[in-house]
Structures are given as structure tokens and as C-alpha cells.
Amino acid sequence: RAYARLFLPIGVTSGMQVGFSNLALVTLAVSLQTMVRSATPVCVLLISFCFGLRAVELRLVLIVVVVSAGTALITAGVRADAEFAWAGFFWIVVSMLCGGSRLCLSQVLLQNAKPPVEKLTLLYHMLPICSLALVPFFLVLEYEAVSLHFREVDDAAGLACKLVGVVVLWAALGLTLVYVELTLIGMTSSL
What we know:
The chain is an all-alpha fold. Helix content is 83%, strand content 0%. It is flat, with a radius of gyration of 19 Å. The relative contact order is 0.17.
């Protein structure tokens, strides 16, 4: 029960953040996605207010308004371009909300839980759930291309070894980044 209450939401929102971000990349230019992602602190701040992690202050609200207005102006200027797609914009906003929720939930566990959860414990429980949450996105976005590639090569075993090597390398990098992120959240805040 405690596992489902504490670690499941963080693992699921982590996987959904990555998955929806990749889904947005299918329909939205990377440059536009980067511009829209600049509003992520706004999502984190609003979710922090909802979780009671931060008190609502005029200064913080003004910061949110300025960042939101700047992001809206950038998005409005690019929207006329052929690269804009509402579906991609929707998926990136969902990804930002998942990311903000993940950061705030991590802060709750690392700072406010009694006793606080250690970073490595959080990683140990969160990452398998995150991996499982990514499976549906893999099946939708990548499975066909990967299976087609395996059918077209002569040395499928060699390709599989290379693929495993690349996945392990990127997983190690991702693990390091998440550990550093959790260290920063534990020492400061989700914002």
C-alpha cells in the first residue's frame, strides 16, 4: 500500500513525461517544443501551490505571469508557421504537467515525508515503474520501426548487441541525471 501511494505516482508521471514529450516530437518541431517547454517552471509553481509546498505570493504570481506571457507570445508568433500542430502542443503541455507533478511529488518524499525517503531508495522504486509506463509509448512510437530494422539486416544478433549497448549507455546517463536532479530537489525545492 505504501509502495503504491509513495512511489507509483512518481514512476508513472516520470514515464508519462518522457513518453508524451516523445509523442509531441512526432508532430511538433524541436525548436517550438523547446520554446513551449520554457513554461515548465510555471507548471511546477502552480502544482507547488496546489500541493501546499509554496505559499501563494504576489512576487511569485508576477513571475508566473511574465513567463507565461513570454511563452504565449513566442508560441503565437510561431503558430502561423507550418511547423505548428495543436496535437503536438497538447502533448507537450501534458508532458510539462506530468513533469511538474513528478518534481513536486519527489520534493514531498525527499523533504516532507516522515522520515524522508533517501534518493537511492526513491530511484530503486521509481525507475522500474517509469520503465513500465514507457512501454505503451514504445509500442506506439518505436516498435514498428525497430522490428522493421531487425527484419532488414543480415546480422540481427549483432544489431541486438549494439542496441543493448546503446540502451545501457543512455540508461546510465539518464540514471545519473535523475540522481543529480533528486539531489538538487532534496537540497532546495522542485522549482
